[in-house]
Amino acid sequence: xxxxxxxxxxxxxxxxxxxxxxxxxxxxxxxxxxxxxxxxxxxxxxxxxxxxxxxxxxxxxxxxxxxxxxxxxxxxxxxxxxxxxxxxxxxxxxxxxxxxxxxxxxxxxxxxxxxxxxxxxxxxxxxxxxxxxxxxxxxxxxxxxxxxxxxxxxxxxxxxxxxxxxxxxxxxxxxxxxxxxxxxxxxxxxxxxxxxxxxxxxxxxxxxxxxxxxxxxxxx
Length: 220
Description:
mainly alpha, 434 Repressor (Amino-terminal Domain), 9 helices
């Protein structure tokens, strides 16, 4: 089961990082999880069984995330180790770890058994996809904004004196990209509002958040 896969993954990444159980327990305690003691980690990693033949110690969701942070490993990689063969994600259902990771992160629907990967479907999947689009569009806006700043004067934001033809071309291209990203963000943020999802805060630029100001009229 996935509990065994996760436990083996903890061992693999802990040893790869040269971290002892004592050190991992200390790191987990520092992150607010003092219950992950040396003994608890030993039970998790070794898979000790009780009288009924069941694991004595499973990893809770809280512990999974704390251990991932302590080992500086993405949680999904800890859960779906990419170096492993097929992993059992449900009783009797084993899939390639990359397919499992795609399902966990809403990149794809539940991994089918015939090997065909279906795109994510449904309202909850769309929420995740729209948030990813939002991050990409915001990054594109900032990249275009920074490119434009290379060809403007700091005080006025107007085109720099002594513009070259290359500078003019790059400025106009960056402006086009910036406006395109703004349009994309407005559409995405409107859709997020329809889905009852709070749009993430937009990273600030300098002394004020110019992007937030530009989108204020359409920000839910």
